Automatic annotation (TrEMBL):
This is Uridylate kinase. Its EC number is 2.7.4.22. Signal peptide: none annotated. GO terms for molecular function: ATP binding; UMP kinase activity. Inhibited by UTP. The lineage of its organism: Bacteria, Pseudomonadati, Planctomycetota, Planctomycetia, Pirellulales. The gene is pyrH. Pathway: Pyrimidine metabolism; CTP biosynthesis via de novo pathway; UDP from UMP (UMPK route): step 1/1. It catalyses: UMP + ATP = UDP + ADP.
Amino acid sequence: AHSELRYKRVVLKLSGESLAHSGERGISMEEVGDISAQIKQATQSGCQVAVVIGGGNILRGAQFSGRSSLINESTAHYMGMLATVMNSLSLQDALEQIGCPTRVMSSIRMDGVCETFVRRRAIRHMEKGRVIILAAGIGRPFVTTDTAAAQRALELEADVVLKATRVDGVYSEDPEKNPHALLYDRLSFKDVIERNLRVMDATAIAMCREHSLPILVFNFKKDGNIVRAVSGENIGTRIEE
Ligand code: UDP
């Protein structure tokens, strides 16, 4: 472990489920509070933080629609994007309550609720020490917030995508099914694609690979890990080149 600041700007991808109690849906105040405290601590080193939050704790488009559904698949994806806005608003208030200035910026214009994402304004907020929470994914259906995290990280010229998960990193197999699964320390994008490893969705992986943007997959459930990830400590699985 070292304390030198490695990253100037990061995109932190949190799944919607990170705001719910394990195995439950919805938004848990306890989890929102925990994550906010960690995010605040992470910004205190001077690193600029943009959070991309999912909506899976409320609704995922692909699961919500289907052959028998009354709801069109695109509609379901838009509903998923709206779920991310609710998550973002809870995180915003929880962060501000502990004295961490925050702005929610949505990819879908929502006057009266939050700002709209404008690249240069987003950068300005971060330069002023505000955490930005990027809501509504990329604002288009049929992708997930993993893709949004990769896309925004490129646009904001972040140094890394920090993908927060419930396990310690990327494994050779599902560690929740096979306790002997191997945890990787480092992987190349080629490895991830060839071995079909579950890291982020395929579009996100392709974007990061194409632009040599590293991804760190780490366990946010271990207290202090968000701060460790942001400060470039050697945790989780690092994917690059
Ligand atoms: N979504 C979308 N476009 C985007 C981002 C998200 O259509 O740019 C929809 C999609 O249906 C997705 C849902 O919003 O399933 C919630 O996001 P996600 O599944 O990424 O949430 P997470 O798994 O991270 O909680």
